[in-house]
Amino acid sequence: MAETIQFELNGKKVEMPLDKDQTLLWALRTNFNLTGTKYGCGEGYCGACTVLMNNEAVRSCTIRMEEVAGKKITTIEGLAKNGKLHPVQQAFVDNDALQCGFCTPGMVMNAVGLLEKTPHPTRQQIVEGMEDNLCRCGAHVRIIDAIESASKAL
Amino acid sequence: MKNEKYYRDEVPENNPTFEVDRRNFVKLLGGGLFIYFQLGEFLTGVSAEAEQRRTVPNDYNAFIHIAEDGKVTCLIGKIEMGQGIITSFPQMVADELDTPLESIKMVMGDTELCPYDAGTWGSLSTRALGPVMMTALAEARSVLLEMGAEQLGVSKDEVTVENGVIFIRNKKSKKVSYGELAKDKKIEKYLEVKPKAKDFSEYKIRGKSFNHADGVAKVTGQAMYSGDFRMPGMLYAKILRPPSHGATLVSADTSEAEKMAGVSVARDKELVAILHADPEKAEKALEKVKADYKFNEMDVDDKTVFKHQLAFKSEARVIKSVGDIETGKKNSDFIIESEFYNSYVAHAPMEPHTALGFMEGDKVVVRASTQTPFGTQDGIARELGLGLDKVRVIPPFLGGGFGGKSAFRQAIEAARLTKLTGKPIMVQWTRKEEFFYDAFRPAAVVKITSGANASGKITAWDFSEYFAGSRGSDTIYDVPDAKTTSFSARDVHPFATGAWRAPANNTNTYARESQIDMMAAKLGVDPLEFRLKNLKDERMIGVLKAVAELFGYTPAKGPSGRGYGIACGFDAGGYVAHIAEVKVDKATGKIEVVRVACAEEIGFCINPEGATIQLEGCITMGMGYALTEEVKFTGGKIHTENFADYQIPTFSWLPKIETKILHKNEPPQGGGEPAIICMGGVLANAVFDATGARLYQLPMTPERVLEALAKVK
């Protein structure tokens, strides 16, 4: 019998066979078809694959499935509740804080993680908290504005 | 003034529902009104090769459809990569047709459904495709008015239309909607006559700010990119890559890889791919492939490249020549001769090249992250020896392009592998592959010899660019004796190079604006005043004055110690001017960008919000090539493999960004590129103003800044 693991994914208990080599990123994208979490660099540099693990922002491309057992994982698809956007998502829309949108799920998840830890960050804290999430289109100014306005709305 | 904002909650279709061919698509649309027209004259940028293969359609190759519910389906061959035409194009369509913005549905880039288009580049969507579409839509509107008048039993002169409802001018209650005209029938109209499109004064939706139409789709993870599609039996392909450009495969032993469960190998000539349902398993198996290569590499690296380029046998082409350069030099009170260098730069979009190929009967279908779906279709058809009718390319959202996704190697790979195996094949490049196969912005040298007289007029301007490309090489200044020469050669680069956001112009503008600054400094004149004195183009003068006001610039001769830089330029029909403020750490050589102000004039601006976002994006992205971005290589070996080796701008870099778009009732121009061209020049000039050190090479890394500082007397 193959070893299985259980964890909570976007509020639901899930179970899957454990593959020790598999990363959380590709488990989400292939086993669960949650493709909002993006592959950008595969080595944890860009943050496009950011999800929440027990409410903390992590790079899913660097997390092995073993570590996920018993944890609570939230992806971009699990953020909106009952059709209502999460305040951070809404703030990104209102501030037009995106262009191509490929880094956006990771940006949003990292921002949610940041606000979990620091509900009312200064601009400087936002910059530091978001520093390792890359955006090539140059939406940075608006992302900071969005996170600032979301922190007020939360 | 705060921009008026509109919201669209609807998630755009982004093509995934349209998996039908054109005939069935038309069938699917059912009844309603089909208005066919020609985009035959819209041929900008069609390569000779593509033209040979493809009879550019001069039949009724384009159409819009109006459904019974009033929904208007508009098909264009362009793609959406963040530049925002998914938002601005419906504004143009709705405005021209006098129908609500919400009624417009865009179908983009599908080679089966959409009219031919060479590619989404050169900031051409709005300025080149726009006018043709608008003329056709004006005609469509006229047809609708005619039909409406007939229905209402009056003459066409007596009716008008608002929000998709046609009514009698002096009797508003007598009305019929576009949808009602289409009800229970199928009407096909073929347009011939070309009435004039609307005048700027009639625009109602154009010129207003709208949020991204695809915002909700993108913040929820619903927006589909090429790598997000799943099909039964789909396999990921990990392809064997050579260690360097110029290396050719001699032999490959895949036996160890094949022992792994679930692995299969697809092989076709030099293409060796490991297939597995799990991409990580495929990657692991690929590591077990043993391969031998034959090497034939160029003897050049990132340090010797400029010497290599100047020594390379190249062909000179005079781009422009006025007066006589020797006379100009004689008329000069001083001459400055300079050489500027610019490195290879990567596109580095956040989404690496990706494509999903699958068979539909004997037809190859590829969902590809490409800026040129029709070019990709051509390429696949050629590679596989198929007719164009047997190849379909569907581009979903692109995770950034910047010119890099004009190259479509990944789509060819997916097509070859799916043809070979009959299975749906996903090719998703790793970041390392993305850096390896990127068609870099070419490294280049610019030589300028220029002179001015004591009264501050430029008297001579001799500009030669080597391998940058000629876009933006013409001087924008008014010089009686001036010459611009472009030097090019095949095979000068050890790997592929290509168009990078405002191709050539970043290098050319950096060199020109640096040289202008040096002349102003030599004369002891304020660099803004010097520019204004030597410019005749009112639109360029307009953006310079606007940015000076926006920044609160006060004149001073350089180096003033304030760290203020100025640069201006012209690209894709748009005029831009920047003023930046920097701080330079003289101990470490590190440059901190404090402020960047930018004024841009792109004729009539369709969506000021979208254009402002592009400005901010250009400024932010442009800091990268100015300060850090440089591809490292030895021969064909690319040392830049991931973001750890290639620093792109991050949040901590952010200066205070101030932007201003000057509105003009002139034809709309491209807005995705112009504002990036000044970033090298404006920051180099700001560094000079701060320190007196002149930087002749981009990027201005701390080492280069320290070297330049050491030369300051």
How would you describe what is shown here?
The complex is a heterodimer of chains A (154) and B (713). Chain A has 154 residues and is an alpha+beta fold. Chain A has two domains: 4-78, Beta-grasp domain (Ubiquitin-like (UB roll), Roll), CATH 3.10.20.30; 87-153, Orthogonal Bundle (DNA polymerase, domain 1). In chain A, 36% of the residues lie in helices and 15% in strands. Chain A contains six helices and five strands, in the order ββαββαβαααα. In chain A, a hairpin with a 2-residue loop joins β1 (4-9) and β2 (12-17). The longest helix of chain A has 14 residues, at 104-117. The model of chain A has no long low-confidence stretch (mean pLDDT 97). Chain B is α+β, with helices and mostly antiparallel strands and 713 residues long. Chain B folds into three domains: 22-219, Aldehyde Oxidoreductase, domain 4; 227-295 and 353-413, Aldehyde oxidase/xanthine dehydrogenase, molybdopterin binding domain (Aldehyde Oxidoreductase, domain 4, 2-Layer Sandwich); 305-345 and 440-711, Aldehyde Oxidoreductase, domain 4 (2-Layer Sandwich). Helix content of chain B is 29%, strand content 25%. Chain B is built from 19 helices and 29 strands. In chain B, β16 and β17 (363-368) form a beta hairpin. In chain B, α3 packs parallel to α4 (124-152). Chain B is globular. Mean pLDDT of chain B is 92; it is low at 1-18 and 43-53.
